[in-house]
Every structure is written in C-alpha cells, then in structure tokens.
Design brief:
By secondary structure, the chain is an alpha/beta fold. Helices cover 40% and strands 18% of the residues. It contains 7 helices and 8 strands. The strands form 2 sheets. It has a 6-stranded mixed sheet, covered by helices on one side. Strands 5-8 form a two-stranded parallel ribbon. The radius of gyration is 20 Å and the shape is elongated. About 4% of the residues have low confidence.
C-alpha cells in the first residue's frame, strides 16, 4: 500500500508504517487531487498537518483519509485542544477520525480518554497525549488501513477553537505558560475572563445610562 503521510517528516509513525511493509510519501504542503493521482496514493494519514484537505481529494479516497487529533472529539476541535480541555474542563483524550470537509468533524474511528492532572504542565500533558495517540495508531494500523473498524458519527456539537483565541489569554505570560502548573494556568485565565466579563457588563450599563 502506498501511504501519504501529511505532517512532520520526523514523526516516529513514518518509520513504523515503512517497517510494516507500506511505502510512504511525506509532505507538509497543500495537496490536491492531481497529487493523489500522480503518486497513486492508496491511503492518507494526517498527523500535525496544518492545511484543510479539500473535497476533490476526499472524493478520490472515500473514508481513506484519516486524522490523528489529541482531543476527545467532539470536544476541542480545531486548534490548541490540550489548552482548551483544561480551560473549559472538557474531556481529555485522543481520537483517530475520518477526514471530511470540516475541522475535525468527521466520523470517529478510535478514541480513548487520557487521564491528566492539573499538577502537570501543558508541555508534559502534550507529550502524554502525543504518546497516547501514537500508541493508539500503532496498535490499530492494520485495522485502520483495511477499514475493518466501523466509524461512528459525532452526535454532540462539542466545542471548536481557532488558533487566535488562545493568544488573548497568554499574551501576558508568553515566557512561562507552557511550564506553569495547569492549576495556575487555569486560575490565571479564569481571572482574566472574569475581569473582561465585569468590564463588558460595566460598559453596557454605561451605554444604557447614556441613552
């Protein structure tokens, strides 16, 4: 099988796939239907890929484009899932899912909860999640590529975040937010949110008084 790996060229999963007897092509660049056809791709694995995969690619390889996401979908679709799982106190985990035209909205193939603690940091929990999803992939690769596992729909709406959303909360702690204990980070962001809510309410009241 010829596998297209979308993501970092130093991922340990690349050698695993090769050692499993499959040919691997690697890119971090945008792809299109022509690329898939010219390279005779049979299956696509997206892991740390920064681009949305378009409809023309998905139509050539129906249900054969999968993504590895370090959140327990449908929670924390999009950017910075580890950060938001603590800030919003949503389930923590990892998911392998079919890629559709949305951001992490495709049918779920495999997932599991990962126990994380607020005494850890974002850096250490990120490492735990990465190890967990790599293990999930390695243990199930043969079933994934042969599509034995039946995917399930994402029924709940869950949550979604853009990459810009986090910046408003960490701009004052850019040199230490990754290494802060999770409990301290959550308290810091919570105080900012409460302060903003207060001033938004205050400004709304002032506007009403001026009418």
């Amino acid at each position: 099988m010829k596998v297209l790996f979308l993501g970092y060229s130093n991922s340990p999963l690349i050698n695993f796939i090769k050692n499993n007897g499959d040919e691997v092509i690697i890119t971090e660049d945008k792809i299109n239907a022509s690329f898939i056809k010219e390279n005779k791709i049979d299956f696509v694995v997206s892991y740390g890929y920064r681009h949305l995969i378009k409809k023309d690619v998905l139509e050539i390889l129906p249900n054969k484009v999968i993504n590895l996401h370090i959140s327990y979908l449908p929670y924390n679709k999009g950017a910075d899932p580890n950060f938001w799982s603590f800030i919003e106190d949503t389930p923590k985990g990892v998911t392998i899912h079919i890629v559709d035209e949305g951001f992490d909205t495709g049918d779920i193939i495999l997932q599991h909860i990962v126990e994380l603690f607020d005494t850890d940091t974002l850096k250490t929990t990120y490492g735990i999640l990465q190890s967990s999803i790599q293990e999930l992939f390695i243990n199930n690769w043969n079933n994934l590529k042969t599509q034995i596992i039946k995917p399930k729909k994402q029924i709940e709406k869950g949550t979604f975040h853009k990459s810009t959303e986090k910046e408003q909360y960490i701009s004052g702690i850019k040199d230490k937010w990754l290494d802060m204990p999770i409990s301290g980070l959550v308290d810091y962001v919570g105080d900012l949110q409460m302060s903003r809510q207060f001033w938004e309410k205050y400004n709304d009241e002032i506007k009403e008084m001026k009418k």
